[in-house]
Amino acid sequence: QKEVEQDPGPLSVPEGAIVSLNCTYSNSAFQYFMWYRQYSRKGPELLMYTYSSGNKEDGRFTAQVDKSSKYISLFIRDSQPSDSATYLCAMRYSGNTPLVFGKGTRLSVIA
Amino acid sequence: GAVVSQHPSWVICKSGTSVKIECRSLDFQATTMFWYRQFPKQSLMLMATSNEGSKATYEQGVEKDKFLINHASLTLSTLTVTSAHPEDSSFYICSSTVDQTSNQPQHFGDGTRLSIL
Which of A64, A81, B82, B103 is 20 to 30 A from B61, comparing alpha carbons? Predict the structure, then answer.
């Protein structure tokens, strides 16, 4: 079993839809959870960063962490064509440790 | 926000050439820099962790003699792919955290696309 599981998609939605992206993980020692957006041939851009169970909202984005179920989600409201990208979940242990990534989900938002 | 600058963005060279990739932290001191590799349609895989002033720590399966990492200053880390071959063609990305002492998220450079002919 991989440490972090993420459905690679692709996921295609109409403009304005609510998008739900998810990751599961196996190691309960992960403490910090991130969502990155990556456009083609670019480095990952940090979208959300959380470290406790619950919800965190930033504009159209909501990150949700459920440590008891080892499950994290990213919701995108009112999706736009510019949201079309690959979304990577990532997590790490405490301290300045490297990230462990999911495979990434390719999202296309169709106008 | 924190900026990590990576250069060059794209390299095409002949087999056997050595290629140096630079990663700079522009507005913070990066004690630790992480180097990742990403193949098409795959996720990022950690190659090595470099710490300023000391030897890099390589992940299992990564040849340290082939992928030379130098982290001589708090704002610059370099990855040199020595005697590159077509199988080394990939997207190489560096990342660091703003504050090494607290649990801050990592910020990434824009990546270097390496194509070996």
Answer: B103
